[in-house]
UniProtKB/TrEMBL annotation:
One of its GO terms (cellular component) is postsynaptic specialization membrane. One of its GO terms (molecular function) is molybdopterin molybdotransferase activity. Pathway: Cofactor biosynthesis; molybdopterin biosynthesis. GO terms for biological process: establishment of synaptic specificity at neuromuscular junction; gamma-aminobutyric acid receptor clustering; glycine receptor clustering; Mo-molybdopterin cofactor biosynthetic process; postsynaptic neurotransmitter receptor diffusion trapping. Coiled coil: none annotated. Catalyzes two steps in the biosynthesis of the molybdenum cofactor. In the first step, molybdopterin is adenylated. Subsequently, molybdate is inserted into adenylated molybdopterin and AMP is released. It comes from Aedes aegypti. Keywords: ATP-binding, Magnesium, Metal-binding, Molybdenum, Molybdenum cofactor biosynthesis, Multifunctional enzyme, Nucleotide-binding, Transferase. CDD domains: MoeA, MogA_MoaB. InterPro entries: MoaB/Mog-like_dom_sf (IPR036425), MoaB/Mog_dom (IPR001453), MoCF_biosynth_CS (IPR008284), MoeA-like (IPR038987), MoeA_C_domain_IV (IPR005111), MoeA_C_domain_IV_sf (IPR036688), MoeA_linker/N (IPR005110), MoeA_linker/N_sf (IPR036135). Belongs to the MoeA family. In the N-terminal section; belongs to the MoaB/Mog family. This is MoaB/Mog domain-containing protein.
Amino acid sequence: MPDSVSVRLLSESITISYQQVVLYDRYRVFFPLFPCYYWLFACEMFSVITVSDTCSNGTATDSSGPHLVSLVKSKLNSTADINYVVIPDEIEIIKQSLIYAADVLRASAVFTTGGTGFAPRDVTPEATKAVINKEAPQLALAMTLKSLEKTKFAVLSRAICGIRNRTLIVNFPGSKKAVEECFLSIVELIPHMLQLLNDDIPKVREIHKKVQSEGGQQHVHVCPHATGKGGDDRNSPFPLIDVDEALQIILESIVSKSDPKKQFSRANIPPFRASIKDGYALKSVGGKGVKRVVGYVAAGSGLIGDNFNIDECYKINTGAPVPEQADAVIQIEDTKLISADNDIERIVEILTDPSPNLDIRSIGSDLRMAEEVFEYHFPVDAAQKSLLASIGEPLKVDKLKVVIISTGDELVHPYEASNQATSIEGKIYDSNTTMLVQLLRQFGFNEEQCEMQQLVVKDEYESLRKEIKAFTGVAHAIISTGGVSMGDKDFVKPVLQDLGYDLKFGRVNVKPGKPFTFANKGKTLFFGLPGNPVSAFVTFHLFALPALRKYLASINEAPCTLAKCVLPKISIELLTENYELDPRPEFARATVVSKNNKLYARITGKQVSSRLKSIVEADVLLHMPARSSSKTTMVKGEFLTASVLRADFISAYE
């Protein structure tokens, strides 16, 4: 909260102290003292106030306030200024901030977030009640009823809504998710409320007339994504969202640590001075010349502490412990054998002058005790596991529990002798389950780090509901294929809603994979992949894989950056002569060819979503832009972004 507010009128400027604002509230004398400046505060604006001790003192980052600012701008189509501040849970500061926003800034509406619960320092409602002239209890009730559709804990919000002079004041909860739910539940009414507060009679009459003419229905939603060729019941009620937005929603649903999880060494590596070469361990002060071989030290031998003369040496192998009295190793290539007895070397000549510590790895030279070994990345890979083994540390991972469900009456298990799909009319082998299991294993989700269950469920509402309910709250993730489109037996979305899942989105503007669906409930994430194999393949890589990587890291208390979650991306030149663009952004499967150290992509034939062969030869997913009036075709020689599907992603060198 500033001590004062500076305002400018033509060439004059004045500073209004905060005490004068309080004085105005108490004695109603502030603006009479400055009548020439009253008009200055009539400009439309909004104010957003985050009430949080931790955000105000810098120990936490405010996400709800900025999100609320974004909602105000986008949903109210506001070009007005938005004043955004963060303050602590202090009742006097909250009251003063509300008065400042309403009486000095003359905000049309003030939206607070935080401090509406039952905790001792949750005093936003009390502060609000103290400064408003009128309450608006039905506004708070509307928000509560909407939130109760999502969670029973909505009854714990004590939000107050009301009016101070001509300023609307609304309390929202503190969480980002709840802020959005509550704001969206009243946003359509806010413009009309502001018109009423400002006595905008013509606009008020216009709204009232419209409501009466439409039988009380002010706004009827028409799906903007309908084709126009079918009835209202023939088009999906789910808006089409962009790929990046879909991925952001998914990843934001997984809370992860910001601090890296580190592994520290519990031993020195090497734990003794070790020879770097096969050769002879000796004392450097003895210089070169003829030496008598007094012993042999192999890798794994015990440490030799005996003293020896400067004209003596030990034959030694790579990795063997260097005798305590030796300070150099001469490689065998710099020596000459003088005599041997029954293949046992007796006398050798050292041909080069040794120097102290020559070809000796000192204790802890690779890794010292208590030194950081690495920051964990999940799934834990071969390099991390080998380092753990080198310090004698077992792999300790909390496993991710994943359930894979294929839906469809037409599906039979491919490896059971009794299921001969080719001999049963209307049946096909279930390939999606096999594909998803193998992809998870391929990306490091092995038995040590991931428990998997798989099943095929018939296209029956109750059967699907029973299976999803059984794994909800048990599995970290359910990956389902099929049942997410607009067919008579596509039950996934209604089942999720029936079971109380928060259905985040039901369609994505992408080819293939438009019906991809994401929802969550408690600890369980639900990925609804389309049933066509290629659509399932693409949406798994775009959405499910990044989420599972982050979730595995999260349950093991480690962060996972976006770069580590998603597939690696490269820039690549198109080798295919031409490719017709689709109205949706497309992820085309392509083979990578290397020519003179440059990478080229050749599209793998027909790209229909049911053609599994297109993914067998695929090394990358090409990011094709959506078709536009100015760009209808991609042609040979143009550069595209490509997501790399596997480590050995170059199929040919030409």
